[in-house]
């Protein structure tokens, strides 16, 4: 038996996104456990620069589900919205101090800190949910109409909704997606050459094509590289996000 393997690693290594849930709401105790686990994540300078909003209003969940064309935003045990939050750092300051803080708060550096803090907390939340026998999926599409989401949640300046996490009792058991080979992710001392990296990814593309063709749901003929190359060639109109962030008081590009 591998002595380095344990229940925590078993939970991590068996992760899969769950997008179909049974019609069972999370208990208050489960919600509290998940949030408290999220709070135990590492945090830059202990800023804890995130907030978590539980979206329980059925009308708002339905609207958000319709905006994103994502049924499991509405159909889940509980929906958490994770937000980067720099506002809370200011509330105990005087009006003059709040003005003095603006240059730092509005910089890309502090936005990056808040995004990182939020992501770390979210991963803890997912792992906690899975340890309770629940399933979860992180949903980036909640920001498809980010201004409307901002209004729904009554978010103040310096608070940005980043993604949602739908949690519930699983009603599906999808296969685990193959991950990139270790050699394409972990490097010693320096980044590999493009030719070396290409060689390491080619076999993975073959594995992913086989996975997509043979999995039990949503089959398609696609590899990992081609899917993302095609996505990044679309020239999507992304300037709206930058304009939104500027409107929230953040000087990011």
Written overview of the protein:
This protein is of the alpha+beta class. About 45% of the residues lie in helices and about 10% in strands. The chain folds into 2 domains: about 1-175, NADH Oxidase; about 175-215 and about 220-253, no CATH class. The protein contains 9 helices and 4 strands; from the N terminus they run ααβαβααβαβααα. It has a 4-stranded antiparallel beta sheet with strand order 1-2-4-3, with helices on both faces. The chain is globular.
Note poorly predicted spans: none
CATH-defined topology of the largest domain? NADH Oxidase
Average predicted confidence as pLDDT: 95
The CATH first-level class of the largest domain comes to Alpha Beta
Radius of gyration: 20 Å
Largest sheet entry: 4 strands, antiparallel
Properties at a glance:
2 domains, 253 residues, 4 strands, alpha+beta, 44% helix, single chain, NADH Oxidase
Summary, kept brief:
The chain has helices at residues 7-13, 28-39, 58-68, 95-105, 108-131, 146-153, 194-214, 224-232, 239-247; strands spanning 50-54, 78-85, 135-139, 159-168. With 253 residues, the protein is α+β, with helices and mostly antiparallel strands. Helix 2 packs across helix 5.
List the helices and strands and how they pair.
Layout: H1 7-13, H2 28-39, E1 50-54, H3 58-68, E2 78-85, H4 95-105, H5 108-131, E3 135-139, H6 146-153, E4 159-168, H7 194-214, H8 224-232, H9 239-247
Helix pairs in contact: 2-5
